[in-house]
Amino acid sequence: MGKINVYDDFSTFCRNLRMSDSVVSNVRDRYHRITKRINTDYWSTDSDTSHSLYVGSYGRGTAIYASDIDIVVEIPWSKYLQYEKYEGNGQSAFLQDVKGSLKKTYSSTNISADGQVIVVDFYDGMKFEIVPSFKYEDGSYCYPDTNNGGSWKKMDPRAEIEAIKKEDTSKNGNIRRLARMIRSWNEKMTVLMPGYLIDATVYRFLKDYEHSDKSYTYYDWFSRDYMKYLLDNAERDYWVFPGSGVHVKPKYSFKSEAKDAYNLISVCSTNREALKTKA
């Protein structure tokens, strides 16, 4: 068995969780193509950057190699007025309208529209989830929800992105790195924690954590203490997402998985506290 070096091992692990340069380039190319199609059909411009925004884990900088790509595309308010007048689920008709637009660019790609997003499943396994929205003057968005007869919802992804970015900077980059680590655990162990919930819990855990600004040398402690935090809060009704104040509610219990992870990490961390104290 090779010698364990906590700093080097966690540094390598975190680096390996990131998307490769080629995947990032592919994401960027597809993002520009989608944006250009929306601008061509709805804004009469061929810009491939205007009226769109990376959101979700990719926008917040917490995505890993297995993450979907979430983006918001802005549609003119005239379309909102058009579909708001529908007697029955104008939100669904609106999603179908935007889906039809995207089909012009991706005619042979599987595209579906349901709930709140348009999903584009590419042949190589990459998935884009596109939220067509209308932008308020304060920078937040109005977006469609086709469930239960249809309604319009509000979101503020820019405020969330900025809140995560600001706190991540103050925590030595640890919020984004820990969030990626937990995504890996979530993916490997099929815990079924949505990425939104992962980011909310990591943010709240590190907000007042005594070692929150430390380096990779402390990442075994980060992992152990985060799992203890999850375990202690497993019955909590919701977490408040930074920036927007949205209440993030767990759909499934993660108590048993958090307990197993905590117990395993605790065993692996035996005697580490004494070593760090001497360092």
Describe the protein in words.
This protein is α+β, with helices and mostly antiparallel strands and 279 residues long. The chain folds into two domains: 19-155, Beta Polymerase, domain 2; 159-278, no CATH class. Helix content is 51%, strand content 15%. The protein contains eleven helices and nine strands. It has helices at 6-17, 21-43, 56-60, 77-84, 90-105, 157-170, 174-189, 195-207, 219-232, 255-268, 272-278; strands at 52-55, 69-74, 110-114, 117-121, 127-135, 141-145, 151-155, 239-240, 247-248. Strands 1, 2, 3, 4, 5, 6 and 7 form a seven-stranded mixed beta sheet that branches. Helix 2 (21-43) crosses helix 5 (90-105). The longest helix is centred in the first third of the chain and has 23 residues, at 21-43. The protein is globular, with a radius of gyration of 21 Å. The protein starts with 5 loop residues before the first helix and ends with a helix.
Which characteristics define this entry?
single chain, 279 residues, alpha+beta, Beta Polymerase, domain 2, 2 domains, 7-stranded mixed β-sheet, two-stranded antiparallel ribbon, 9 strands, 51% helix, globular
